Amino acid sequence: DQQVKQNSPSLSVQEGRISILNCDYTNSMFDYFLWYKKYPAEGPTFLISISSIKDKNEDGRFTVFLNKSAKHLSLHIVPSQPGDSAVYFCAARRVSGSARQLTFGSGTQLTVLP
Amino acid sequence: NAGVMQNPRHLVRRRGQEARLRCSPMKGHSHVYWYRQLPEEGLKFMVYLQKENIIDESGMPKERFSAEFPKEGPSILRIQQVVRGDSAAYFCASRDSGANVLTFGAGSRLTVL
User: pLDDT tens digits, residue range A67-91?
Assistant: First the structure.
């Protein structure tokens, strides 16, 4: 049962253009969403997050949008840079008692072409 | 302020041997998570521990896998009698109480021959 889905395994974008990475979820109990970036042979690095009470959060070139009714979130990167080439994981958090665990999507490989 | 430290970074084992993966959380973090990434797949939750307690092990296989986070020392993920299907990258993450964000280590890549 894949509760967090990233349906695009890969995405290629020209440098300077916008990258849009998408993520869908099924569990309405998720209350917090995060994006992580991962380079080869490294651990995932936190990028940006959004609470379920908001619909947008912006941090520099990165903006995350949340559409709760559609159970959909997206990460926009503009302008895209070659250094942004990495695997991007969407994650969702559900608080159950004292446990806070993240459920990850399968990732999208972003390639930014110079 | 060192991040989450995992060792070994690479571990090769033959079928039937034991694998022990260590994780030292960030200083001050008392919550530790283990995730596994199989080839071509995303990160799958395995276990969540606080000092000396397993909080949630719903993602851990029932047999051969165990985890601990003792009062002193690193968290240990132990895999007994490894099989080829255990070959994966194992990531540890930690957080502070009340924090939403997990900080990940660089991972331990296990190869079972």
Answer: 999 999 999 999 999 999 999 999 9
B41 vs A contacts (CB less than 8 Å): 106
Cβ–Cβ below 8 Å for A36 and B104:
yes
What tokens were used for A46? 């936190």
- Report the candidate in B101, B55, B65 with the shortest Cα–Cα distance to residue B85: B65
Each residue of A16-72: pLDDT tens digit? 999 999 999 998 889 999 999 999 989 999 999 999 999 999 999 999 999 999 999
Task: Give the separation between CA A20 and CA A17, rounded to whole angstroms.
Answer: 10
Chain B CA closest to residue A108: B42
**What is the biggest distance separating any 2 CA atoms in chain A, rounded to whole angstroms?**
47
